[in-house]
Amino acid sequence: MLVVQRDCALLAKLIAFAFVRRKDSMVFANPEEKCWKLMGIATSLCLILPLFATLVFCGVSCRGNSGSEESVRNTTEIRTPQLEKLPVPSFGKAPELNKIFQQRKSVRAFSNREVGWDDISLILWAGLGFKRSDDSSIVVSEATRPAPSAGRIYGLRIYVLSDGKLRLYVPEEHALLLVEEQLDTEALATAAYHQSFMAKAPCIFIITSVIEEYQAFYRERGERYVYIDTGHVAQNMLLEAEALGLGAVPIGAFDDEEVGQILGLSEKEQPVYIIPVGHYE
Ligand SMILES: Cc1cc2nc3c(=O)[nH]c(=O)nc-3n(C[C@H](O)[C@H](O)[C@H](O)COP(=O)(O)O)c2cc1C
Fold it and tell me: How many degrees, rounded to 5, is the angle at CA 125 between CA 251 and CA 153?
């Protein structure tokens, strides 16, 4: 719109200039009168032309658009009338990562085979672990992790439900804390609006958050950051699972209260995302 107004103002100036040249022979009572009249003409043109251009622009927009190029043109305004083709994505520049992106998909059918603790360890590390040395043997930074987090709050927790037991991941120790000796995966699937395939997953990760931890820093924006952080952590876990040759799916449809009760969460802690993981059927 700014472009249209700018162009119209320019046009108005040109017309006023032409007018001056043509009417130079006109006799004005004094130079001040001439100046005021010309400014009046120019101002009128500045007001009328943008209005006219807006009407024409709206008319064109409302006529409807079918092609993708047409819709892009309407959203990016007049400045980019043509699509600029990008180079074909060259997977060769980061082949391993791009292969994982290509392969990732949601998997909802799993074999009975257990997910090994080595794999669980890597998936948890990718989610909330700390950066390690190249051979992964030692933690090299207590501050930085594979996933980003707003203000480095990392106010998320990951529970693991495997071999019928519920455990909480403790990133500082890269260890698990037994929370529940026996937990029914069927109950979790029921709380997820009867997504029965979940009950067959040999391993289920549940990401929870305490919104107050984010709100203490970010006030009302804190809630938004919980979900953004959760997305980063979950994506890391999904891609790690994919890289390990495992199938996984992110689950967002469940009854918060019911899941909270099943996991024995306090009122402040809410489940945000569930990720069943397993070997392909
Ligand atoms: C926020 C979110 C919530 C989701 N919730 C569910 C869910 O409750 N059940 C399910 O089977 N899939 C769920 N999915 C997975 C999507 O259905 C899946 O990612 C989408 O269909 C794209 O397919 P793809 O992952 O195979 O590329 C969810 C995905 C996201 C991002």
Answer: 80
